[in-house]
Fold this sequence. Notes:
Oligomer: single chain
Number of helices: 15
Number of strands: 6
Structural class: alpha/beta
Amino acid sequence: MHLSPPLEEQLEAARQEIARLTKENNRLLASRFYLQRFQNDARLLYFCTGFQDYGTLKSVYLSLEPTAERLQRWSQAQTLMGQDQTMQEMSRAGLKAENLSLIDQFFLFLCRVREGASEESLAERFHVSQSTVSRVVTTWANYLFFMLGSLPVWLHRSAVNEMMPQCFKDTYPRTRVILDCVEVHIERASSKKVNPENYSNYKGSTTLKGLIGVSPSGEITFVSSLHEGSNSAKEITKRSGILSLLEEGDEVMADKGFLISDLLSAISVSLVSPPFLNQRRKFIKEEASITQNNAKLRIQVEKAKQRMKQNHIFDRVLPRSLLGNINQLWYVCAMLANFQGPLS
């Protein structure tokens, strides 16, 4: 006849098992990569996400959460649409099927664009499959593109005037925006004949080019779509839509490569740009002074560009698999730069 161990022994065995499971759980939690781990480490949080502190990041997430909870994972959407599901049925599934909380999906997306971390390393870090990482990044890129794209980032003339630094007030008080182009490099197709208009000798890649506009106070207020790298700054400016936003009497500051004075004069807007040397060997004294002043004022757009480049996903040649989402990633990274606080 089998006799059960005394109650005291059973209790002791239970306590030991609970202690073992608690230790194992703590070990797993310590090895898990999730946002809350970094809420008291501003340095690492900034490295991973670009946000200066946990409070700002959490505030941005909370503003997104109500709609993010109804977010439809793109792979699910394609599957369910193929099954003739209604949009209401599709929205119920949402991202809850993922093995990550919504805020950690947002965190994963930020790590992807900020660090430029590979899908393989993120899969290992977050304890999910590589396909899950790819789906989360695609979904959040499109979702944030929609949400951030609905924000009115183009500043009214009165807002520009109110926030304008004194150095602009003293020199070019009608400046509405500072323009510049940024290049993005993507993996080259197997043959140059496939996309010769994009081809660049830079690391054997093809090049896409986008226009950004920065206010005198340093906010990114305009982001164009990406265009073929062979397009001139003038052509991109014409196609970008920014001309329709400018008002009579505005001034636009740009580098000497922006040959857009005719486009601007047609809408009664002035171009502030460094003078050309033409056939001369050097600037006259007045022109040199203007060039130096313009360079000092254009530092705002350079700082804004630097913030965008700190999203290290654009540091390297992007795989062609990202082409379907590259405009969304480009725009979202530009808008996220505005959450990093004033330009120093």
